[in-house]
């Protein structure tokens, strides 16, 4: 899929929707799929794979949205795309947690930090954020009550019934 990413009323010009990791079940949908780089290191491998793909396409930023957040809306994605654009990363605050899988990253800076994290023998996305915080910084985006209600993750079939 090329061109603009369109989600409801949301349009992010020149955006590409990319599935990261083992996405064989979704091949028929026609989306670009990117492998973890390297495989077997958890979400850090997925982030490095996505950032490497974005770097090859000469993208400046990526939005990261975990697949288990089915209720995130267009308005929240617009905020992620357009707020704190001078930061190396913009992450959503969920209580005391900074969610690295609902975030925007500056490609060059985040890729360097992610590779350094892996080279240091770490696999934590929080470690990537810590490295980015030492540079241009990590901005944290607080959510209003309506937005916070959309970022609950669904990990099991029972979560759908909540």
List the helices and strands and how they pair.
Layout: E1 5-7, E2 10-12, E3 18-20, E4 32-34, H1 43-56, E5 61-65, H2 74-82, E6 89-94, E7 97-106, H3 107-119, H4 125-133, E8 138-141, H5 145-148
Parallel strand pairs: 3-4, 6-8
Antiparallel strand pairs: 1-2, 5-7, 6-7
Helix pairs in contact: 1-3, 3-4
Brief characterization of the structure:
By secondary structure, this protein is α/β, with parallel strands linked by helices. The chain is about 30% helix and about 25% strand. The protein has a single domain (about 5-155), classed as Spore Coat Polysaccharide Biosynthesis Protein SpsA, Chain A (Alpha-Beta Complex), CATH 3.90.550.
Write a structural description:
The longest helix has 14 residues, at 43-56. The protein is globular. The strands form 3 sheets. Strands 5-7-6-8 form a 4-stranded mixed sheet, sandwiched between helices. The protein is built from 5 helices and 8 strands, in the order ββββαβαββααβα. The protein has a single domain (5-155), classed as Spore Coat Polysaccharide Biosynthesis Protein SpsA, Chain A, CATH 3.90.550. It is 30% helix and 23% strand. The model is unreliable at 1-10 (pLDDT under 50). It has helices spanning 43-56, 74-82, 107-119, 125-133, 145-148, and strands at residues 5-7, 10-12, 18-20, 32-34, 61-65, 89-94, 97-106, 138-141. The protein is of the alpha/beta class and 162 residues long.
Largest sheet: 4 strands, mixed
Instruction: Tell me roughly what share of residues is in helical segments.
Output: 25-40%
As laid out across the biggest beta sheet, the strand order is 5-7-6-8
- Give the helix tally: 5
Number of domains: 1
CATH topology: Spore Coat Polysaccharide Biosynthesis Protein SpsA, Chain A
Estimated radius of gyration: 15 Å
What is the CATH domain class? Alpha Beta
* Quantity of strands, as a count: 8
Global mean pLDDT: 85
Q: What sequence of helices (H) and strands (E) makes up the elements?
A: EEEEHEHEEHHEH
Any idea what the shape is? Answer: globular
The fraction of residues assigned to DSSP E strands is 15-25%
CATH superfamily: Spore Coat Polysaccharide Biosynthesis Protein SpsA, Chain A
The termini sit apart by 33 Å
